[in-house]
Design a protein that fits this description.
The chain has about 180 residues and is α/β, with parallel strands linked by helices. Helices cover about 45% and strands about 20% of the residues. It has helices at about 5-20, 65-80, 90-100, 120-130, 140-155, 170-180, and strands at about 25-35, 40-50, 55-60, 85, 110.
Length: about 180
Amino acid sequence: MKFLRPTHLLPVLEKAFRLRKRPVGKSWRMDETYIRVKGEWRYLYRAVDKDGNTVDFLLRAHRDKTAARRYFEKSIAQNGVPETVTIDKSGANLAALEAINADREAPIKIRQSKYLNNLVEQDHRAIKRRTRPMLGFKTFRCARILLAGIEVMRMIAKGQMKCARGTDPSAADQFYDLAI
């Protein structure tokens, strides 16, 4: 019997989850956090809606306009266009949203406030709690795959997976449904 490594299994589970993910709200709070990869800091872009549901995530090597724009384009492609995006005072995030708005007829409303972003800042804590004991990742590829697995499990625990009507399965049952 062949042993499957997490780096082989997690992308399959993430893809299966994305097909069954519930829609998120139209008001997003976006921020990035730091993750150590090969002894260097990398940036995990994340967003949650106003109810605390995870919108999307993306690990990037740099914290700049290009990385932020890539994150927003990926999030919009998978979750639809938000009405409002709340960001902190980061100039890169603002520049990326303004670049996206330049291509759109109906612009996305941008709010910059470090206090309104507390919801996503608190949500970072769960990711940090999982990654801190790991003492960083050895490769960027493994970091991206394992962080995707952690994020998928967080979304399952938050109840973001579509289930049959009238059922309320546990997180373990939802994970099992994805695996088979």
